[in-house]
Structure formats: C-alpha cells, structure tokens
Design goal:
Structural class: alpha/beta
Strand content: 15-25%
Number of strands: 5
Order of helices and strands: EHEHHEEE
Number of helices: 3
Helix content: 25-40%
Strand order of the largest sheet: 1-2-3
Length: 115
Amino acid sequence: MNEMGVLDAVVVGAGWAGLGVSYMLAQSDIRHCVLERGRIGETWRTQRWDSFHFNLPNMYSVMPGDRYDGPDPEGFMTHIEFATLLEDYARRYQLPVRNGISVTKLNQVTGSFTL
C-alpha cells in the first residue's frame, strides 16, 4: 500500500479537519498520506439531508492557506458545494489522499505503527 516508503504521519479521514492537517503537514515537508474510506468529503455527500446548508457564511468557510474569493461572501454553502470545495482543495495543493481505504486497526511495532 505504501509506495512512498516510511511515512512520518498518517491522517485518517479526508474531511475538513483531515485535509487541513494534511495541508499543514505538507507545508512543513512532513511525509504523510490521508486515508479515506470513501471519497473526499464522503460524509458531507452521503450523511446530510438534501436541503442542508452551512451555518457559517461562505467568507468564514475556508480551508488553511485559502481565502474566499467567490461572488457571495454572506451566502451559505450546500453540503455538495462543500464536498466539491474539499475535492478542489486537495487537488490544488496536491494532498496525498488515498480513497477507498478503511482504517480498522493500528499496530505498534518497535516504536513504529503499521496499519
């Protein structure tokens, strides 16, 4: 699974927090990957009702390293718009996300961890 060799960190989940952490690790040149059991932003796609909108205005719904440049800073994103934002963020910053990998167990072996 790991063609990158030994990693310094593994992030579990490619949602808002996981991608934000990945961005900061990348900015610090820390070798890592993000494991996501589904697609980027999966829970935003599949575990929200159709009429769901954020309760924060668009101008505050930004990821680390980004800023809001859209046409409606006081509007509210839908769950699909946010999932799309997450995908775009991961692509723009070339974050090392691996989709379709469920983490069910973590083992410690001589000071290191294996999945």
